[in-house]
Amino acid sequence: MKDERLFTRDFTMVIIGQIISLFGNAVLRFALPLYLLREMDSSVLFGTVSACSFIPMVIFSLFGGIIADRVNKRNIMVTLDFCTAALIIFFGLSLEKLPLVPLITATLMILYGISGAYQPSVQASIPLLVNGKYLMQGNAAINMVSTLSGLLGPVIGGVLYGSFGIAPVLTVSVICFTISAVMEIFIRIPYVKATENISVFGAVSNDLRESYSFVRNEKPVFISVVLLLALFNLVLSAAMVVGIPVIAVKFLGMSDAALGIVQGAMGLGGLAGGILAGVFAKKMKLRDSHITLVICSFAAFFMGISLFNSIPHIVAFAIINVMCFAAMCASTMFSVAMLTVVQQQTPPQLLGKIMSAIMAVSGCSHPLGQAAYGVLFYVFEEKPYIVMLGSAVFSLIIALYSRKIFVKLEGQGSSL
Fold first, then answer.
1. What's the confidence (pLDDT) of residue 295?
2. Distance between CA 397 and CA 55 in Å, rounded?
3. With helix as H, strand as E and coil as C, how does 218-286 read?
4. What is the pLDDT of residues 273-330, one digit of tens each?
5. Kind and range of the H or E run holding 144
6. How many whole angstroms separate alpha carbon 151 and alpha carbon 240?
7. R_g of the chain computed on alpha carbons
8. 306 CB neighbour count, 10 Å cutoff
9. Closest CA to 25 of 90, 119, 99
10. What is the Cα–Cα distance from 134 to 127, expressed in whole angstroms?
11. Residue that wins the pLDDT comparison between 376 and 206
């Protein structure tokens, strides 16, 4: 019988491990692309490398879910954290010995691939560690941890990188991943070893077939949700991932620390969204989730307006910070509601696979979008507001259309 508390020993240790691990990850994800952008001064190259980095995340998030349902989730977390620490040590030793662009591209691809394999284990462990009545609060807590790390990581990473270069950033990251891995060894996550005698490829084939059969026969609305998320990622999420650093560094001429502040504003917004999702868990309805997507679209619209030539750069910088906060707050509330509904409507033995499939397929559009926006921000280098305003308009159309999909999804399961 599960503990009646939300913050049990093991769930608390998962949260602490996530804080440390994701902080190290956030520092790296901020510093390495910025280092490349500063060294090469090319938005096209920046967008292309960002796109390449996301491809392994999409692939490994799918297989990560399959593995998460068949292997002890604690062991997955421990192994991947140790592997990440080893990766960063290798990167640091090779930094001045190997060509910069291939080295950073390969490192980011492996880093994102590890992240894609890691997160399904975390998401699939929540229902095993948290009492069902606290499921949304548990998801909110994990999201808050992710966004808190995303808040502190870029800010501290910006200060470290701007003041001392890349070396301290790498050192801090290695320490974080090592500490997290050691601590996760002592987490106890319920696990039943599979008894069937089958090869790895056979297991993957069976699991994919079982997951597809479940979605096709029992939850076809999941397909509509995934396609909707993929389209929204293509139009808006990719624009912000590529656009924010390019706008801050190349158009507004901000410092590394200032860019860290922008990323920190996004993290703070995600933290606020996680808190609001936890506080209003019982009042949140999935049918109203399109409102959060509309808010994200309007945030991108006001970012575009702030880039008009008549607006001083310091004012534009302030507006972008506020809009980043609002967009991340809304998107986090949306993510918590969506994850909770999927967890409630999916059998436990398929949870890891379904969760990872949703993340993988919806994330497929990210690389294409990032590569495209790298080119667009180069073409409209003097007028980046054109790109942001176009992204805002198209994403608003998608957000308004999404309501009927969310109504249908909510109607197939328990209301939030």
1. 93
2. 27
3. HCCHHHHHHHHHHHHHHHHHHHHHHHHHHHHHHHCCCCHHHHHHHHHHHHHHHHHHHHHHHHCCCCCCH
4. 877 877 776 676 777 778 889 999 999 999 999 999 889 999 999 999 999 999 988 9
5. helix 135-164
6. 16
7. 21
8. 22
9. 119
10. 9
11. 376
Distance CA 124, CA 355 (A): 8
Asked if residue 327 lies in contact with residue 396, where contact means CB atoms within 8 angstroms, the answer is: no
Structure tokens at 138: 């548990």
- Quick check: 82 and 177 in contact, CB under 8 A? yes
> Which residue from 113, 132, 128 is spatially nearest to 187, judged by alpha carbons?
128
Q: How many C-beta atoms surround the C-beta of residue 211 within 10 A?
A: 22
The whole-model pTM stands at: 0.69
pLDDT given for residue 193 in this prediction: 64
Closest CA to 138 of 333, 340, 338, 414: 340
Side-chain half-sphere CA neighbours of 226 within 13 A:
19
Q: What one-character DSSP code corresponds to residue 131?
A: -
Closest CA to 407 of 285, 284, 280: 285
If you search the block for the tokens 């507001």, which residue do you land on? Answer: 385
**Structure tokens given for 90:** 């290798």
In this structure, which topology does domain 9-185+200-410 adopt according to CATH? Growth Hormone; Chain: A; (1.20.1250)
Q: Tokens standing for 63?
A: 């297989």
The burial of 386, by beta-carbon neighbours within 10 Å (0-12 exposed, 13-18 middle, 19 or more buried), is given as middle
Q: Name residue 133's amino acid.
A: K
- Count CB-CB contacts under 10 A for residue 411: 11
Q: Where are the chain's structural domains? A: 9-185+200-410
Residue 414 has pLDDT above 50, yes or no: no
Angle between helices 351-363 and 100-129 (to 10 degrees): 150
Q: pLDDT value at position 1?
A: 46
Tokens encoding 365: 């559009």
- The encoded tokens of residue 75 equal 């062991």
Query: Above 90 in pLDDT, residue 397?
Result: yes
Catalogue the long-range contacts made by 86-94 (C-beta closer than 8 Å, 24 or more residues apart): 87/111, 87/114, 88/28, 88/170, 88/173, 88/174, 88/177, 89/174, 91/170, 92/167, 92/170, 92/171, 92/174
Q: 54-58, 182-186, 316-320: which range is least confident on average?
A: 54-58
CB 243 within 8 A of CB 47: no
